[in-house]
Amino acid sequence: MRIGAHVDSTDPLAEAAARAADAVQFFLSDPQGWKAPKPREDAERLRAAGVDIYVHAPYVINVATLNNRIRIPSRKLLLGHADAAATVGAKGLIVHGGHVNAGDDLAVGFDNWRKTFAYAAESGGFRVPVLIENTAGGENACARRLDALARLWDAVGEFEVGFCLDTCHAHAGGEELLGLVDRVKAITGRIDLVHANNSKGAFGSGQDRHDNLDGGTIDPDLVVALIRAAGAPVVVETPGGATGQAADIAFLREQLGVEQRPA
Ligand SMILES: [Zn+2]
Asked: How many angstroms is it from 67 CA to the middle of ligand 1?
């Protein structure tokens, strides 16, 4: 069981060491911006490291939207990130499920997801596995509630698509964590990564506000049970910098009875 953290992108391996993490996730560009990722000087070091690497795509990406001015650059940015993620040996590229605007037909949003993979396949496919992550808020989201997730997977299931389950987003999004792994796997057939976060927002609040595992509105035992059921690598995206995240990682290792992977 590999357990790590979302860290600053300047020196991810130093951040991993500071947290005793087996895995790190980071951004390759400004998460709120549209700039393509720049080549990293430490790419070879990252590839060779014993630490598993995950890349989180920018938040601005929304391949589902009916708005061409967002959707087209989103596809391009996602493809560019997959290329860049491959250069650092990433095991996956995490991207939010996205949404359509109020009044727009969600069915078109799911089909836009299908086209994203179909167009990528024409040029050889994404160079790293793309993991679609469930989101916390909005009424027109593609991957907030499981009924939407099922429709999304109907659209993209013919492609090799991964799934990242975020516990804060599920809880705030209105999905009970108890038994959630089975319900998700019945749809996706897989969980490739767990984002283990507590939630400042209440159940069903729609608020995307992460908290440390021993804080927030989720019973941490439920997060532990979910991780055990998922059997997937774990990344915490919790506050408190190296100290806060190291404590969350240590808590999970203790509860799950696993040790840091030897370097
Ligand atoms: Zn997340």
From this structure: 24
Cα-to-centroid distance, 224 and ligand 1 (Å): 16
3-state secondary structure 212-260: CCCCCCCCHHHHHHHHHHHCCCEEECCCCHHHHHHHHHHHHHHHHCCCC
Taking the whole predicted model, whether its pTM rises above 0.90 is answered as yes
**Could you give the percent of the chain with pLDDT greater than 90?**
97
Count of H helices and E strands in the chain?
A: 9, 10
CA angle centred on 111, ends 108 and 113, rounded to 5°:
115
Q: What is the pLDDT of residues 74-109, one digit of tens each?
A: 999 999 999 999 999 999 999 999 999 999 999 999
Whole-number Å distance, alpha carbon 195 to ligand 1 midpoint, is 5
Whole-number Å distance between alpha carbons of 200 and 211: 6
Dihedrals phi, psi of 82, to nearest 5 degrees: -65, -40
Domain ranges in the chain? Answer: 3-256
pLDDT range class, residue 261, cuts 50, 70, 90: confident
| Average pLDDT rounded to a whole number, residues 18-34 | 97
CATH architecture, domain defined by 3-256: Alpha-Beta Barrel (3.20)
Spatial CA neighbour of 83 closest among 132, 125, 25, 32: 125
